[in-house]
TrEMBL record:
It comes from Lujinxingia litoralis. It comes from the Bacteria. Keywords: ATP-binding, Cell membrane, Membrane, Nucleotide-binding, Translocase, Transport. Coiled coil: none annotated. This is Phosphonate ABC transporter ATP-binding protein. One of its GO terms (cellular component) is membrane. InterPro entries: AAA+_ATPase, ABC_transporter-like_ATP-bd, ABC_transporter-like_CS, ABC_transpr_PhnC, MetN_ABC_transporter-like, P-loop_NTPase. GO terms for molecular function: ABC-type phosphonate transporter activity; ATP binding; ATP hydrolysis activity.
Length: 263
């Protein structure tokens, strides 16, 4: 269970991105975080692993309070939380296998990490994960020789190498074509179910959020204005999250025929 209580973020320039967020996410749930640009989605997910430092409030993963950990304790706790990025954040000049194994860097000694020495069990697991994400046979390929969809699959395999309890996913499909975006969302959904993994996905694409997640949380100006099952996110509710006028002119994005057109 992930529990956020009174989570508050004020940036150094005084801007309050999150006034006070309360959210509970049970283990195994896949949550889509939606909302207009600037609503605070990235700030919220980054406050969970403290890539952005919350100004006040509580972030608990299971029984562990994350918001007051020392740097060393935080490093340890971050093993439990993996992140997947829109731009994949791979090292281009390294192979697929090296990128996937880098998910274990938090577990090996400093020297071993410098020399990129990993235990055979890790290498074996990396091969298994590459098969799981549909990249069997591509372990020796340089990361920059992959398609966008393949790169995101490497990012997912690297995240899973960490054996995390929580996945934080930042716009995983924003750089992908609609078909590949659906495949990536299906993969994330399957993996969460199989592994009882909790995930929060910051996503702009409402049809994809509706199709592939268990729960949708709508943010507006840093506050939760919708929290419900995908079926409850009716077209009538969307203007409450996105603001009426802008949304009306964007109705084409509401086509839920399954084509994930980025809004
Ligand atoms: N370092 C910062 N200093 C000041 N304000 C910031 C900083 N980072 C973000 N903000 C502001 O906080 C608000 C929330 O930003 P955030 O990136 O979390 O929104 P978002 O919902 O993820 O937007 P998008 O969908 O466009 O990525 C925005 O108004 C943004 O300008």
């Amino acid at each position: 269970m992930l529990t956020l209580q009174g989570l508050h973020k004020r940036y150094p320039d005084g801007f309050v991105a999150l006034p006070s967020v309360d959210l509970q996410v049970p283990r195994g749930q896949l949550v889509a975080l939606i909302g207009p640009s600037g609503a605070g989605k990235s700030t919220l997910i980054r406050c969970i692993n403290r890539l952005v430092e919350p100004t006040a409030g509580s972030v608990k993963l299971g029984d562990q309070e994350l918001s007051n950990l020392s740097r060393a304790e935080l490093r340890e706790a971050r093993r439990r939380i993996a992140m997947i990025f829109q731009d994949y954040a791979l090292v281009d000049r390294l192979t697929v296998m090296e990128n996937v194994l880098s998910g274990r860097l938090g577990y090996v000694s400093f020297l071993d990490s410098l020399l990129r020495r990993f235990p055979p069990a890790d290498v074996e697991r990396a091969f298994d994960l590459l098969e799981t994400v549909g990249l069997k046979g591509l372990h020796d390929r340089r990361a920059d020789a992959l398609s966008g969809g393949q790169r995101q699959r490497v990012g997912i395999a690297r995240a899973l190498m960490q054996q995390p309890e929580l996945l934080l996913v930042d716009e995983p499909t924003a750089s992908l074509d609609p078909r590949t975006a659906r495949q990536v969302m299906q993969l994330l959904s399957d993996l969460c179910k199989e592994r009882d993994l909790t995930a929060i996905i910051n996503i702009h694409d409402v049809p994809l959020a509706r199709a592939y997640t268990d729960r949708i949380v709508g943010l507006q100006a840093g506050s939760i204005v919708f929290d419900g099952a995908p079926a409850e996110l009716t077209d009538a509710v969307l203007p409450e999250i996105y603001g009426g006028e802008d949304w009306d002119s964007d109705q084409t994005h509401l086509d839920t025929a399954g084509e994930g057109v980025a809004a």
